[in-house]
């Protein structure tokens, strides 16, 4: 608490984004010429007056010993205050894409955690609850639920980055300024796959790397190959019957971050697998076709295993979901039997 009686909570201050130097200079000049025109918002919690809105204006008044007015607003909890601060910030036009994604992610996580605590004993599964929460937040901000969930992943990655000491703080600042070109897609990917590498990532970004992949290059996918028997045409050369559908799916997936720089390899594998599957359905498979298909299956798996299943499912178009869903349980049982045969119980 300072001499004015206002309390600055670090939980609130940590949510705020710094003004650009010219913005701060203009605000200071305006206050010196005209005074503080807008009252500072405070939350009266018991006998405390906690500053909610107006931190930059408040700092200027303290620097120049100026007077200011306050208005009180009622909040039920600190989480309600934090939610108000984030929502108020989303209304600013000068946020970077990274700052906007972080703020939206925090809003989603707050709603998700609150609803999960209320419905802890509900019959609904966590996955269904998260889906409805994402839909609720998405509708409020006129966005897709996929965008909301990706923002949540980005917010989690930034939070972990900030735990990496001084270099983590520097790296997070660079990310939020928009200086790291692939941060929106690659930070969440590293967070999910290799969170233990975040200290090294923080050090690399703090030292001047302009991309996450400059610090951690994306590994190339493993490709399985076989030599076809003489006189046997590989089933992988068969054309797929859903070329137009796959073309449409490529367009749907464009910009989602799924597959990254290996989008072409990803979709080529899917198309080949679709052709092979159709061939197996139409006739009795030969041994070479079975060999080819099992290898092709694991080519696809090498690419798909780096994608979170819930993220992948959210981006799939309806016609693919309708074809895949009836076979999911059967496929899981088949792979379980194969694993049991290879590795034992």
From TrEMBL:
Residues 116-136 are annotated as: Disordered. This is ParB/Sulfiredoxin domain-containing protein. Residues 125-136 have a biased composition (Basic and acidic residues). It comes from Acidithiobacillus thiooxidans ATCC 19377.
